[in-house]
Input
Amino acid sequence: MTNKLQIQNHRAKIWLVIFFTISLNIIWNAGFDNDISIYAAIILSVILILDIYYDEKVVNINNIALVLFVFLFWSSFSIIWSVYPIRTVIESVQLSVYLLAYVLLTRLSDENVEKILNSVLIIAFLVSILGLIEYIFITGARIQSTFTNPNPFGIFIGMFFLTTLSIGIRIKSKSLDFFSILFLTTLFLSGSRASMGAVSVSIFLIYFGLTKENLKKGIIKTIIVILIALTTTQILMYVSIYTRENIFINKSVLESITRRSSFVTSSLKGRLEFWRVAFELFKNKPITGYGLGTYFSAYYTEYGMNQWYARFTHNHYLQIASELGIVGILVFLSFIWNSFKGIVFSAKNDYKPEYFWGMVSAIVAFLLHIGVDFSWNFPGVTIIFILFLAIVT
Output
């Protein structure tokens, strides 16, 4: 009895540790290029060891965690041939945080997992508010809040929009409706076309499991939320002009969302060049790649003598292929495959929490987004993906 009480007390603290790990990654530049991942890896390792000690059981590794471990092993092993070993070590540490967080989350009770979810939702709310304040009073430019780039920020907010909207069409709650409108407004003002596209493609998943009557109500509510968010976005644009006294800026909500003038000239052409380089790098070393996190360094071997250069491929699948070869990309795709197998297995349960399909939709949106952007390289975003994945599987 005493041992069970110790386990309960210990796990009551684990959710706090994981919450602070996730929150710091979000708040501190989304975990990008700082030491948060190193401290998080150490702390989560200690917590997992203690949890195993108190529980007196070995870790129950499911297929998702197992494949993620294999991916971590191959990624870390690539330091042997890496053209930039320091970066390989840093990104291997980040991967270890994702694996440790996933394993720990699967060991927690539903009650503690929901505590983490509710707490992280508050953090996302505060980050959105900060971004809106930044937009209205300081920059008037694409919102990035505590992130260093608006594109990863966009999909981060988009994932929470899908989750809150999914719950909101199943439960009558004005606060959830408010959250959905807030997150969507912030997403619009981030100007991240890839994020909006990923959300648009995956949003249909939130309607799974609804009756015909509730499906109709859910679609109507979604349309209302979108219209209110668009209206709010336009109002905030005008407010921003007034507060910053800049009347010479075009503040059309449509232009803010599409940014048509830069789509072909920079975004598309740039990405095509980054993808070309990644594919050439993959052809150079198809088995091993150049080492985890080394795309930016290996880039120069296939430099096209033009204006295009990027630290990331803007397609994480191609980036893995160029950095870890065919072995790495096959293991990563196996991780995704097993993740969806776990989701399908959970979906067959009679009882599913209201947020289930919203999180599945968010997971799909994230995996789509990393196909055209570099959000995986922002721990503050990827840790949310891991959180949602652990919850729904």
